[in-house]
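It is worth pausing here to work through a concrete case rather than discussing structure prediction in the abstract. The textbook approach is simple: state the sequence, then state the predicted structure, then interpret. We follow exactly that order.
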Amino acid sequence: MPAPVQEVLTESKSDLLGFSLEPAMNAVHSLFLMTMVEKRSGLGEWVVNTAQAMSKEERDLHRLVIVGFYFLVNPNGSWPSFPAYLDHLAERDPYEMQDTLLQTYAEMGKWDEGEYDKEEVLASADNYVAFLMGRFGEDKVEVELERKAYDYVLQPETMQDLIVGYLRKMWDEKLKDEWDRVRPMLEDSAAAFQQVDFSEMSNEEAIKFVAADGMDDKHWTWLMENTERISFVPSAHVGPYVGRYHNDDQLWVIFGARIPDGVDVDAPDLSRADIVVRLNALADDDRLRILKLISQKGELRSADVMEELGLSQSASSRHLKQLSASGFLTERRCNGSKCYQLNPARIEHTLDAIANFLLADAS
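Step two, the predicted structure:
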């Protein structure tokens, strides 16, 4: 295949760090976020509105393509535009795509050195689903969705047509206009971060500065041990969360586009977008109750929050994730659970940001 062309907008003082718009990866990540609307609060308005406007049949098709064929849809590299990436997908050998999908599952799973029996895996839908469960676990596999995916995996040309056709349709009808709208803001964010001196920062410190999401899970540890170059990718849709993609020794970290602390840049769209993300985290009665409870009682476990406020496990988890990702809470592991503390500095900084934005031009 032709070598992907990397659209690096800026380079940091360290040749191991960079900022890029990554239009193909950005687009696919936004499509993936649409599958997370019911699980994550605080995602970008375009993501939420586009997902909610879909019919059930459209949502099912979207999940089939984006989730069922995730490892074929994900660019896993740099491309100058989303249409250029789609042209590449259309030119791939469909049987090579089939092998790529199965081999990726095998190498990520509990199989000896990524070995598997292709004929056995594809002998039946039951075998295919069992193959996936061996990798992800029974609770992580959507059986009905993967059975539908199996029918396409058996017919690689039809699978390729489905993937490319659907992605082109989403680009033409949904993504293109949105990309044209947000691209200037993403360029401003990348340029603003370029003013930061990363030369004395470790990989971990750089990621924490750009994407303040927690890095305490084992996957981050593995990534840090297997990464030589990091590309930071600003997104208009990821909200307070962080996306991460890894290929060979390259890591892409997708973060919410904003102006970094300490950089003086006149970019009102970015300032407003950052404020919206923070206020979104506060614009819910349950999340405000959580903040007040932790403010009054100090550090609490997630189970304590559930019990004190009478929240379900799913609701509590969703709210705590958003509040932590937005920086209003800090989290740490304690006795096999997650414990949360209030971050007063983030609250004060948010109030200052609102005041500066609204009063900057006041006479």
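Step three, interpretation. Confidence is low (pLDDT under 50) at residues 1-13. The domain at 284-359 is CATH 1.10.10.10 (Arc Repressor Mutant, subunit A).
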